[in-house]
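[Meeting: bench + compute handoff]

Bench side (C.D.) handed over the final construct sequence. Compute side (W.E.) agreed to return the predicted structure before the next meeting so the bench team could plan truncations. Sequence as handed over:
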Amino acid sequence: MATSFILLVGLNNTACCEDIKSHFKDKHEVISIESGKECLSLFQDIYFKTKAILSNMTLPDMQGTDFLHKIREISVITEVIVVAENEQPRDIIQSMKEGACHFISGGVATKTLIQALDHFLSGANFIKKFEELSQKVLYETYDHQKRLELSRELVQKRKEEGKPLSQEEVLALFPYGLDKSQAEEISSELVAHSGMSLIENTIPLILVVEDETELRDGIKRILRGQFDVITVGSGAEAMAVLKEEPDIDIALLDIGLPDIKGTDLILELKKIKPQLEIVMLTAYEDVGNIVACFQNQAFDYLNKPFEEETLMLTVSRAIQKKNFKKVYQELDSKLIQQVLSVKVRLVILNDLFIKRQAENKPILMEDLWVFFPELKESSTEPKKVIPKKAFSEGILLYIEDLKSKIGVCQ
């Protein structure tokens, strides 16, 4: 039985599939699958061992974006590369939003596919993927009862700190669009348990980076009724303003600025403020730009001209995500302990161990903390190297031994 798999879905090119199988035969078992439903059925059983999926955008039994969505419901760990001969920009955008790591278009050579697989497999970051998985679980599937339990804990923490709980923090815990009565019920219960009043949100601050004066002024006019807005006309101005205004929540960036490519500006702004949510604006539907924007962690991508309603909805969704991430930082450890099973954690941890071995790097105690946050209670140094023997004999035994030493219940 292979230790890991690569799945080829709907490629319809026997020679290409055989070349890919030959290239990876010493590292992974490559399986060719014709339909999306067949792949989903198999993936349910082997997703822990599946390193990558290379899928045609056009499948015989389902839409490519629907297939991607269902893959991501099962796992966010596996790298997914999408291939399309006649792509539509909206399909590319949706594919990247659904979690594709790359989108290859046009007449695709086998060599290009192999290079893409090599690149994304070698660059797999299991710690980052694990954190994405935990965040996805909380954001999309954590039921209201669990959220309410965590809310109470957050309220208590704020009470101990002598700080109020903001409306922003409450709403961020419930990102499903609750109706008014549900929201009031939750807020009332939180206040009842905390003895504290909820405070009003501050007005979000939006940075608009657009070199066309008329469009820049038009965007400001649309947004300023609900948001504070700062406008600039170049990438250099944007970086300077962000350094001076740390409270900026969202940036709207024109992809064709006079002094810097929009895709490069995303990276520069993220260096200044990693939590910044960025929406790209463009008049041209370029495949390479769309893929690069999402790979550089843009939140969304709007084509000019766009409707006022579309702009407002996109900005509101970006703010909701930003608010959620603020609260998530305090809840991720609780999530990992309560939602993700020990089996899931151990499988990903062992994958990380295998990758580190290949790189001749050790697993450190701080790596264990990501998967088992309760171990932080120990006095162990974060840079302590975990012995390889711990993995060969069973890492769970090592972890349970650590827990027993610090009095953590099994």
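W.E. noted at the follow-up: The two ends are 32 Å apart (CA to CA). C.D. will use this when planning the next construct.
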